[in-house]
Specification:
485 residues, rod-shaped, single chain, mainly beta, 3 domains, Jelly Rolls, 6-stranded antiparallel sheet, 1 helix, 32 strands
């Protein structure tokens, strides 16, 4: 009988010890990060910071956590090279991070030293989150940043979840004013639009919607979420590019009833006007428009075969005189009467220059002709450079008559197509004044024809006011013809 009781007692003791071994949870010192530990120093912002990490798991039966004491000095991991000493540090912050098996909400963490002083200042009581990581600064209305003088004992209470997991990070500082907590990496599970755990979470979604795994184009909806698309569609808005120049490849569809336009808008403050490239409907093949390499003034023109060219204003034809001694001559045809008088003006620096003096009282005229370019666009501008020995803003009335002849036509064609305009002084005698007439009349003229003209001063004012009382001294007459290139 006595042996039976011994067996029963041994069995009971075995079951008790086995139950305790199975039921008791763990709370172990899993990391100490300090500049005193060279291999760990990248986890802290400076040499005045130490982070002590505890990994705690509640037991699988009673859901309780064991109390754990952190020595005030020691080494971690098990190497005497990685020593630390917390004496004289301030308990600055405490991080609490729930694990995969989350604890009961509003659990309590107490931290006491060997004298029983509450190092947690009551700031960790009944407020532990079941799901979110928390970082609490040890600064209350009555006390702040308690000084570590002895070993610290950690106790977790108020949990009812079996095998719950909590990670505690104690941030200790030499001084509380030298650092505001920045630099400590986040810990625990990521939330919101992030997945995984810190310090290396991944982006799982944007504003609650998963990021498309593959797409030709990415857009957004009214909720600020990313959406996938295989095409670009007209949304009634425009794209604005303000960075450095780059290259954009666009694919478009044109049909017999639609055509594609690529507009370039000006700023809204200037009216939102635009210039555009227009792609004709129903293209028959691939077309590439090549922009000219040179920076040339003018406008773009397509030849209909996919090539862009420039319409510049580059061809100039200028008629100017020369002086040989005191004799002036000009490349004009003249008559025996009504001719302006060529003269040479002698200056102090410019010794001699030629002018044609058009009389103030009598209409005087000159004649000439030139060959129109084979790529002429049909417009001619005229500039007249002249001076007058009168300090006034009076005007001289100028005019030009034109006509053209083609191949196999008689040279003696009547002149007409009259254009008149005013040359006006600037109030100072003998200033260089340039008078411009844009688009002189040339009806009936065509490329490769010879243009004849009569240039004159309408001194009697038949076509308009001529109140300049002195000769108009013409230095040059210059034609500008627009042509393709």
């Amino acid at each position: 009988m006595r042996n039976i009781f011994k067996l029963l007692g041994a069995a009971a003791l075995f079951l008790l010890l086995a139950g305790q071994a199975w039921a008791v949870g763990t709370c172990t010192l899993s990391n100490v990060t300090s500049s005193q530990i060279a291999a760990q120093s990248t986890r802290i912002p400076d040499a005045g910071t130490v982070i002590v990490t505890l990994t705690c798991t509640a037991d699988a039966s009673a859901a309780t956590f064991p109390s754990t004491t952190i020595p005030v000095s020691g080494y971690y991991p098990a190497s005497y090279l990685n020593t630390y000493n917390l004496t004289g540090f301030l308990l600055y912050q405490v991080g609490r991070t729930p694990g995969t098996t989350q604890p009961t909400g509003n659990y309590t963490v107490t931290i006491t030293d060997s004298r029983g002083f509450a190092m947690d200042l009551g700031l960790l009581t009944s407020n532990g989150s079941a799901s979110a990581a928390q970082l609490t600064t040890m600064n209350s209305t009555t006390s702040s940043y308690p000084l570590v003088k002895s070993a610290l004992t950690i106790t977790i209470t108020g949990n009812s979840v079996k095998s719950a997991q909590i990670t505690l990070d104690l941030v200790l500082r030499v001084t509380a004013t030298a650092w505001n907590g920045a630099g400590v990496p986040p810990i625990g599970a990521a939330g919101g639009d992030l997945a995984g755990t810190y310090p290396d979470p991944t982006v799982a979604q944007v504003n609650g919607a998963a990021v498309p795994s593959s797409a030709d184009f990415l857009g957004s909806n009214g909720s600020g979420q990313l959406i996938a698309s295989s095409t670009l569609t007209d949304s009634g808005s425009s794209l604005e590019y303000t960075g450095a120049f780059g290259m954009l490849a666009l694919s478009f569809n044109s049909s017999a009833t639609t055509q594609t336009v690529f507009p370039f808008y000006e700023a809204a403050a200037n009216g939102n006007n635009f210039r555009a490239f227009s792609v004709t409907a129903a293209l028959t093949g691939d077309v590439t428009w090549l922009l000219p390499a040179a920076d040339v003034a003018g406008v773009f023109k397509s030849d209909g075969a996919g090539n862009l060219s420039i319409v510049p204003t580059v061809q100039l034809f200028s008629l100017e005189g020369v002086c040989q001694g005191t004799t002036a001559s000009f490349p004009f045809d003249t008559e025996a009467t009504n001719d302006p008088a060529p003269a040479c003006i002698t200056g102090t620096n410019v010794k001699n220059r030629a002018v044609l003096d058009f009389d103030a009282a009598t209409d005087e005229e000159v004649f000439a002709s030139f060959w129109l370019p084979s790529d002429w666009t049909g417009a001619i501008d005229l500039k007249v450079e002249a001076q007058a020995n009168e300090a006034s803003t009076a005007s001289a009335r100028l005019g030009i008559d034109t006509n053209c002849i083609a191949a196999s036509e008689a040279y003696d064609a009547p002149l007409g197509n009259t254009t008149t305009w005013a040359w006006t002084g600037d109030g100072t005698a003998n200033h260089r004044i340039i008078s411009t007439k844009t688009g002189i009349a040339t009806p009936g003229c065509a490329v490769d024809e010879r243009l004849f003209f009569r240039f004159y001063r309408d001194a009697d004012g038949t076509s308009g006011t001529d109140d300049l009382a002195v000769d108009l001294r013409v230095i040059a007459v210059r034609f500008t013809t627009r042509r393709t290139q």
